[in-house]
Known about the structure:
The protein has four domains: 3-241, no CATH class; 248-443, no CATH class; 586-686, no CATH class; 725-844. The protein is built from 35 helices and 24 strands. Strands 1, 2, 3, 4, 5, 8 and 9 form a seven-stranded mixed sheet that branches. Strands 19-20-21-22-24-23 form a six-stranded antiparallel sheet. It has a five-stranded antiparallel sheet with strand order 14-15-16-17-18. A hairpin with a 2-residue loop joins strand 12 (582-583) and strand 13.
Amino acid sequence: MTEDINNTESGERVSLYSLFKEKRYRIEIPIIQRDYAHGRESKKDVRDDFLEALMKYLEDNLPNRDLDFIYGSLLKGTKDDIRFIPLDGQQRLTTLFLLHWFLANLDDEVDEFKSVFTSESTSNGKVIIKSNFTYETRTSSTEFCDKLVEFEIDFNNLLEPNENKSNSLSGTIKNQNWYHISWGDDPTIQGMLLMLDAIHEKFTNTTNFYSRLTNLDKPIITFQFLNLKEFNLTDDLYIKMNARGKPLNPFENLKAKLEQLVKKSTYNKSHDYYIIYKDKHIPKTVQEYFSFNIDTKWSSLFWKIYKEINEGKSTKEKHSYDSLVMNFFHNFLVNYYAAKNSGKKHLENINQLLKHKKDSDVSFSFYAGLGCINEEFVCSLIDLLDKLYEYYVERNNSYKILPNCFYYSEESTFRRNVENNYSNYNQRIQYYGFCQFLIKHGVTDNFSDWMRVVYNLTENHIYNNSTEYINSIRTIDHLSQNSSDIVNHLTTINIKSSYFHKMQLIEERIKSILIKKGVKWESSIKNAEQHDYFTGQIGFLLSFSEIDGYYDNNSNLDWSPAEDNSYYNVFTIYNSKAKAVFLDNGLKHFNNYIWERALLTKGFYFLKEGYNNSACIKIDRDISWKRLLLDGGQEDYLKKDKRSLVKNLFDDIDYDIANIENSLQKIIKREKGNVIEWYKDFIETPELFDYLGAKRFIRIESGKNELKWYVNVFLLKGERMSGAHRELRTSSFFINNIQGRKDKYAPFASGGYYDPSGREDEPCTYICDFKYKKGDYEIDIYYDAPDDTYRLEFYNDNDNAIPNKIGNVMTSSNFQLMDHYYTRTGINSKSLKRILRKTCINLSNI
Length: 846
């Protein structure tokens, strides 16, 4: 039977040493407590921070450096001992117990340590030494504490540490005959050993710290004691608060550290916060305001999305509530840090922050070490949470403020933010722009204008690395100073001060000037921008309608009303044609590649990437239709503005865009005779496009013979000539003359195309399956680019000698014998089909 006693007043300052020396307590960590968490591998930052603080306190040698409160109960046991049962403070007390043991051994004060930290009892005539600090969580933990206080360590004879570890102290302890192998399964013991290694690494070169630590007159490291019974509090309260001993998660640790930092700050001198209670404004410090709201009203901001995200998921798949809040904090901090800092070290830190995937990836000490948790950051975070709560919870109970905003999806972005599920840099930058406007202005009529500009700039900027992300977010931060009227500001901005694509920023300026002209322009501009494929990038329409040309020449758009109507009508027509050709996911599907073929009548529009040229695909940085509309590609094969080819085609398309395919067919019929010869192969043989791979690459190789330049064109199945490929002219001949025409070249029964992988063999088309006696004969058709001629090769597929009878036919058909095959060269394109047919007829007559 035990009874509560009270010989220590609540609020009394005590040291761990005084509890043992003067109070004669035994400290028992109760069963409901979790294991010793500070010794976990994952808690290195917590461990290092705490030991660093203890080291500084002992070095400073100033009294009464409080480690906050310790809560617990005082109980009288069956013997005349007094047991202190801590319900809060377990981690700090355990670390200090280990530090006392270590320093006592280091400073040769072991006997003194044992006189205070141990007790003796007798069992069967044998004296048993017991530790006055013990764990009830496991029997093994209790036994380890008993053995440790009795053990004296020789620091001159420690075992060598394991490779890449500093575990010579724990290794020596585990090597003692009293250490049980089974203790390796006790997380508290393993945590104590890891902490002892950390203490050894930190304090090994100190002297006389034990005497400082145990000074009763001027105790250095102290606590303030609170007896739960005096406050009519029970153990049940602690169990509820600490979720039956579960360790504090990373966000709880972060929150506590942040509150401590703010509490010590001078922020309150420049900030006034208050809460409303029963219609009264109750002043609060920054720390009090943050601490109160993070667990109350702000929590409702995350609770709804927490339930939505986890609906229908298994326990293993579910996100914890605190992880969502942690991600929110982290992503706001990443953007803030990127916007407010610069330099090489800053870039390295950003890259580390961007790797964050789970709560344990970062810690308060890392954040604080960056120097970004400052007054501006904390107060911006508070302002953002207040604004989000006001508009998302109080006003409409949904994650949406902007009405029907094409340019920013609030709910999906908020969800992406708390799940830490960003897929690109522009999403992060758009979120930062949204937050900055909300913090600075709340919700105003110009909010949508701001997000439109942020969206257009970010969606149409190519991000290759984190440096470009940093530069862009700093530009958005700079622009946000004028975000309340961004349309007006863009008409005066210095283009050179931006890290965004210069063409896009000029486009935004021109569009801003047009929008200021009135509703009709604003409506048309947004109608063009709000196309899922153009994503705000409509510079090609401004170019086609010659609006950007007027701006380039005049630095303004101060035209007459009549000119305004003319420019407006032309812009509207080009917009209508663009929407008829391009759907939300890219180029509209036209039968037989009629769009590509019609565009080739205007010129070579293919975009270059590396050694290849692409017939353009839907989505890609360098070879998409959107890139063609942006600037015609990075490298222009014909040194012309390839974008103008689209304009020329648009100009020839009938205004009746409902029949656009008919219009394109008319253009092809009218213009195909005026194009470069090899373009004509694509224009007249649409099936050539079918062979091209995912990136629709061709390879153009040029050279010069004695007379002129020549071009050799290859169709690529993949991206390299080492993969399957075909030659353009023979491919066209195969499609138009051999494919599907079994009886055309008798006595050859079939035909096909040989597309090699690599350059060892030449691609060619062929006719085959002519069987004569024991032979199986084939004619291969090659294109010789330097001479712009074709070459035929006739041979026996069985590698047998060619009979004289057949040889005579080939010779009479002007073929020459070359070792084991016959060849005829120098055949022009107009003669190829005739010569091939005549050769087949001659062979049929054998």
